[in-house]
């Protein structure tokens, strides 16, 4: 019984890695071009913005919240950066620094409304999604901005030792997320609030402050992703991040981050993002329609959420019996 328990624990903890490996093997067998080194580097480069943004979503989900505005937070990041760098001729470093401040201020406002007035995160972030969407289109009247500085675009198009720079950016983001969640004392506060907010409050944790910090962190990573995405595609568009929140939530939940709160690890975000990226790349190579790809990802998200809730209910039953 003990061996079975250990085996089931290992499968639950690392089974998603096996899913990724199986997915890679299937597409490698179907398409010879899929298993080339250049294609794997392409997959990693393409998944970088999604993975980076998913790290911020991981923090939000762990505390039992959700952020639907991350997609258009990326879009607003791209548009504001584009205006400052192209229209106003500002230095890319200054432009990026300012846009980080703006978006983190928006994140703090989201967290404040959620923590102070106890408004459901779904409603607050949905409202901000529409606000940011409107801002993204108003800035240029819905027009794209091109002609970004070459030194800025190197962040998305350059390479170092044969490895695309967006991959290094993704690794840096993963390290930052891991360090905050696992090496800083505040990391345990996120899990405590997601597991039992009232118990966390009674234990002396400033729940409101931590919640605000959570949405600031989420905004930081969404902005980080927006900057990488902008540098990669060289064009600021009000639709740059449109719909990306679906891939981000799917990546987190598929990786094992619980939507019920209290559970989630940074490596799971990376694995979940890779599965989505591998599916996108493999289905395109197999010439599967984009519409069918959307359906596949929707089905995957549905089953991932159902599985997550089943696991959570089973865990609650065990706690009740004990």
Description:
The chain is an all-alpha fold. Helices cover 78% and strands 1% of the residues. The protein contains 13 helices and two strands, in the order ααααααββααααααα. The protein has helices at residues 2-30, 37-62, 70-87, 92-117, 121-140, 150-157, 165-183, 187-195, 197-202, 207-233, 244-255, 266-285, 290-321; strands at residues 159-160, 163-164. The protein has a two-stranded antiparallel sheet. A hairpin with a 2-residue loop joins strand 1 (159-160) and strand 2. Helix 1 runs parallel beside helix 12 and helix 2 (37-62) runs antiparallel to helix 10. The longest helix has 32 residues, at 290-321. The radius of gyration is 20 Å and the shape is globular.
Task: Note the main attributes of this structure.
322 residues; mainly alpha; two-stranded antiparallel ribbon; 13 helices; 2 strands; 78% helix; globular
Task: Write a brief caption for the model.
The chain is mainly alpha-helical. It is 78% helix and 1% strand.
Low-confidence stretches: none
Number of E-state strands: 2
Largest sheet: 2 strands, antiparallel
Strand content: under 5%
Summed up, the helix count is 13
| Order of the strands making up the biggest sheet | 1-2
- Overall average residue pLDDT: 90
Instruction: Kindly name the structural category.
Output: mainly alpha
Distance between the terminal alpha carbons, to the nearest Å? 18 Å
Share of residues in helices: over 70%
SSE order: HHHHHHEEHHHHHHH
- Please state the CA-atom Rg, rounded to the nearest Å: 20 Å
Task: Give the oligomeric state of the chains in this entry, treating copies of one chain as homo and distinct chains as hetero.
Answer: single chain
Shape: globular
């Amino acid at each position: 019984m003990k061996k079975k328990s250990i085996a089931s624990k290992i499968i639950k903890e690392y089974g998603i890695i096996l899913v990724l490996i199986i997915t890679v093997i299937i597409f490698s067998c179907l398409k010879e071009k899929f298993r080339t080194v250049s294609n794997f580097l392409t997959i990693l480069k393409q998944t970088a913005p999604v993975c980076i943004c998913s790290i911020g979503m991981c923090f939000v989900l762990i505390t039992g919240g959700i952020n639907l505005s991350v997609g258009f937070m990326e879009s607003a990041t791209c548009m504001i950066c584009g205006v400052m760098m192209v229209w106003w001729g500002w230095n890319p470093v200054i432009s990026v620094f300012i846009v980080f401040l703006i978006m983190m201020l928006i994140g703090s406002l989201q967290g404040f409304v959620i923590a102070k007035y106890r408004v459901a995160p779904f409603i607050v972030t949905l409202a901000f999604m529409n606000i940011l969407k409107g801002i993204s289109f108003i800035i240029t009247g819905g027009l794209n901005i091109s002609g970004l500085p070459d030194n800025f675009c190197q962040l998305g198009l350059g390479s170092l030792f044969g490895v695309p720079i967006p991959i290094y950016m993704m690794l840096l983001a993963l390290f930052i997320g891991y360090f905050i969640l696992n090496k800083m004392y505040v990391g345990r506060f996120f899990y405590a609030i997601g597991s039992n907010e009232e118990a966390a409050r009674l234990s002396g944790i400033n729940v409101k402050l931590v919640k605000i910090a959570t949405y600031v962190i989420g905004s930081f990573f969404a902005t980080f992703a927006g900057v990488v995405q902008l540098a990669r595609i060289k064009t600021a568009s009000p639709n740059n991040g449109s719909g990306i929140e679906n891939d981000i939530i799917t990546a987190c939940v598929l990786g094992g981050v619980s939507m019920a709160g209290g559970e989630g690890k940074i490596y799971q975000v990376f694995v979940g993002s890779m599965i989505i990226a591998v599916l996108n790349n493999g289905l395109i190579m197999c010439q599967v329609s984009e519409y069918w790809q959307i359906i596949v990802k929707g089905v995957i998200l549905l089953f991932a959420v159902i599985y997550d809730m089943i696991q959570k209910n089973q865990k609650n039953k065990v706690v009740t019996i004990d």
